[in-house]
Automatic annotation (TrEMBL):
GO cellular component, one term: membrane
Main location: membrane
Native source species: Chryseotalea sanaruensis
Gene3D superfamilies given in the database record: Preprotein translocase secy subunit (1.20.5.1030)
Lineage of producing organism: Bacteria, Pseudomonadati, Bacteroidota, Cytophagia, Cytophagales
Protein's name in the database: Preprotein translocase subunit SecE
GO molecular function: protein transmembrane transporter activity
Length: 63
């Protein structure tokens, strides 16, 4: 039981005193960057999908 208590005590001390936490403004800007990049990626993949779908529909209608 003593090992568990020591582990928890040392873990709490490390989280409280030794970890460098990012500032809220930096987290916010990173989240916005991820949101914008994900949206652009989704739009590009959607456009590629639409082009392939339209091309295959045209191809199948010709034959």
């Amino acid at each position: 039981m003593e090992k568990i208590t020591t582990y928890l005590s040392e873990s709490w001390d490390e989280i409280k005193n030794k970890v460098s936490w990012t500032k809220y403004s930096e987290l916010q800007s990173s989240a916005i960057l991820v949101l914008v990049a994900s949206t652009i990626f989704a739009l590009v993949i959607g456009a590629i999908d639409w082009v392939f779908k339209s091309g295959l529909e045209w191809f199948y209608s010709e034959f």
